[in-house]
Structure formats: structure tokens, C-alpha cells
């Protein structure tokens, strides 16, 4: 097993990183290995890599037009990889440690205001009443996103045992496979029950269904596609984009699934929710990650202030 393969196994099985992180880190380290082969023009070793190679790699990424956030992630991947090599292979140097991390501009999250949320849910409810399985499912997913603030992968990966509509809560498996319990709102509960009625009808029409999504005991997926299988994250994205695109003025072009998570956090903080409680609901490891939503709230208040105060 190569060093990179062993590193991927370590990230996945021991650190329990998310599949997205594992894939991104593996790609970054493999890209660096390819760069080193060209940079040194001959045989090279991980222990022989110096800071010049790291700087050259970052420069090459910049020339390719990569965003600073992606460059910062690549540098983080290399630092983590060299720490892994130190523990497993005795490599003492970490040339990525001294490299300066590209300064990432912190952008405020895109979110929907209250009036947009009302328009969005009114449209989704109307479609669900007039439609069938797909429309009922899309409303249930929308309600659950806004009710819990869960991430895309978390919703797509939900299994029936995770959802408890008697006690109105859901067990969410977040980044690093960490679990958290999140309350489910009454509107989301009603939408989910209506969707389950349609899902049961789909199972019956498919003769019990097949595959992972159609039912395998405890692993039965909550959200299915029209073929009775677990809906993919891409399928969830497309479903939410269909609903977001109904907002007036082309607003839907600026919004995505994660905007619902941002809206959940922003509206809680606007209503006076405790920052630590919001951190726990979102599954953030660091409070500083959650604090970006306070900036969103402050920006909104500034806008109101400048519009309304006579001497602003």
C-alpha cells in the first residue's frame, strides 16, 4: 500500500473524516506528488521535499486559478499528511508547516429572509397538495432542512431509525461521523408523515422495491427517488433547486441547499437564540464557525439602522 493509500485509510477509518474531506485531501496530496515528480525532474522522496517545493506547488495552484480557500485546504492536507508520515514512517520534516496559509476572505453566508421563506414554503405546499410522491418528498426535505439546519449529506444519509416523530427529534450523523440529536418542528413532522404515505404507496407499486433505498431492515432510507432507491445528494440538490428557482426576481440563482442551513441559523440568532445552542444544533466543532452567523445578523441590523435612523 502506498503512502497516499495508507493516508486515505487513516483519514477514513481512524480519523472518521467525512467522505468529502477524504476525497479532497487524497486529491490534494496526489496532485502534490505529481508536481514533485516534475519539480525535481527525477527520483524524490517525501522526506526530501523542502519548502521550495511547497511554495512552487502553491504558486502552480494560483496560476491555475484556484481559489484561496482551495489552496488553503491543499496546504492543510499536506500538513496533515506529513504528520501522518511522521507517526507511521518516521519522517521528521514537515515542509508544509512553515508555509504561510493563503488568507481566505470570509464571505457572509447567503440566506433567505422571512418573507422569502414564506413564499418558498407556500409554493412547496401548493405543489405537494396538487402533486404526488415527488412533490410530497420535496416538501418534506425542504421542511427538514429548514427545521433542523442539517447538511446535504446528512439529510441524504438519513435512515428510518434516525427519525423519531413520536418525540419529534432526529439523530444526525455529521462530519467525522459525530452524532447529534436535533428537534424536528411540527410543520416538518406533518410533511414527513404525508410523504411517508406516498412512499408506502410507491413501495407497494414497486412490489416491495429493491436495493438499499427500498428497504433493508434497519438501514431503510428515509428519502427515496422514484425508483425506490435512496436519493443521492445530487438528487436532493436538484429537488431543492427546483423549489428555490420559483422565488421571484431570479433570486433562486444565488441560492443553494446550504442556504437553507444558513437561514436556519440566522433566523434562530435573530430571534435571540443562544450562540452555543445554535453551535450544537449545527454540529460545529468550533464556536468561531458559528459566529459567522452573528455577522450576518449584524449586517442585517446595520442595513435597517441606516434606512431608518435620521442621523445614521
Please tell me about this protein's structure:
With 312 residues, the protein is mainly alpha-helical. It has two domains: 3-89, DNA polymerase, domain 1, CATH 1.10.150; 114-252, Intergrase catalytic core (hpI Integrase, Chain A, Orthogonal Bundle). It has 14 helices and three strands. The protein has helices at residues 3-14, 19-40, 51-63, 68-89, 114-130, 133-148, 152-156, 186-205, 211-214, 233-244, 257-270, 275-282, 287-290, 292-308; strands at residues 163-164, 169-173, 179-183. The protein has a three-stranded antiparallel sheet, with no helix packed on it. Mean pLDDT is 89; it is low at 210-218.
Mean pLDDT: 89
CATH class of the largest domain: Mainly Alpha
What fold name stands as the CATH topology of the largest domain?
Answer: hpI Integrase, Chain A
Number of strands: 3
Q: Which structural class should the secondary elements be placed in?
A: mainly alpha
Compressed to H and E, one letter per element, the order equals: HHHHHHHEEEHHHHHHH
CATH architecture of the largest domain: Orthogonal Bundle
Main-sheet strand order equals 1-2-3
State Rg: 23 Å
Residue windows where pLDDT falls under 50 for at least 5 positions:
210-218
Termini separation comes to 64 Å
Q: Main β-sheet: number of strands, strand sense, barrel status?
A: 3 strands, antiparallel
Strand content: under 5%
At the fourth level of CATH, the homologous superfamily of the largest domain is Intergrase catalytic core
* Principal-axes shape call: globular
Give the total of domains: 2
Helix content: 55-70%
H/I helix tally: 14
